[in-house]
Amino acid sequence: MPSSSPPLDDNRLALATLTWLAEAAEPRHLRPLIQAHGAAKTLAMITAGQYPGDLTQPTRARLERPRRHLRDVPGRDELAAIFRSGVRLVSPGDAEWPSRVDDLGEETPLALWARGAGRLDETAGRSVSIIGSRAATAYGMHVAGDIASEVARRGWTVVSGAAYGIDGAAHRGALAAGGTTVAVLACGVDRAYPAGHADLIDAIGQAGVIVSEQPPGRLVSRTRFLDRNRLIAALSTGTVVVEASRMSGSMHTARHVAELGRPLMAVPGPVISAASGGCHQLIRSCDAMLVTCDTEVMEALTVPEPRD
Hints:
nine-stranded mixed sheet; Rossmann fold; alpha/beta
């Protein structure tokens, strides 16, 4: 675990507890209370059902939902055991917090759970997300792995979602080049999803970071995949979509990238492949840059030095 991990005081344990409740309450309702009163007092308010007088009725009603989930939250001893296992909590204001995530505004996670040898702020500092179709063609897998390898050799981190297809090829390409990679999961960082990528996810933890806003032990769900997509978009400097169908999760991530104003790139597969339709749409309608190699990716990510 990075030596800079903050100590486990009452406030950090309370924030960890709130990550189990955030899905029911939504971070935008919890964050103002945490900022004003701290995590420990916010948790006490939710537990007692007693809130500041200036809180609106809709917000009060929303905060009643997580109270029903308090029984699902691990106790203090269980939380301490989670932290001893090598899993850590990274919160806004911590040295390890990746500040680029703050661009999500109201949708910024309360905190991020992380596992692995790398520091999240450093690995995300110069990073590119490489995502795409689970049902990728051999061509798409080759291109994703090749771009990831070359980007990693240039000292940049490869971010992806650890899924089958393009995600796996991107992670493996970065690892093969001796580079750093970050896996963003839609479940707890103590779980391997998909199960067939358990060894890959462990390897990512050895060379980089496994991260999720979902607390340890939590399983995947459709909405959690959608939440994960915005985090992939926000963590990196820019995103490359390698093969994606029109209605895929990668297209959902790409829309977040566009909304954040980050560089968006696309690599279509064969024109007869359904996995190319989304990339064609991104190039045609979302100002995505058509890229074919790592050099073009780096040109899109970096700002040229001013000339005399």
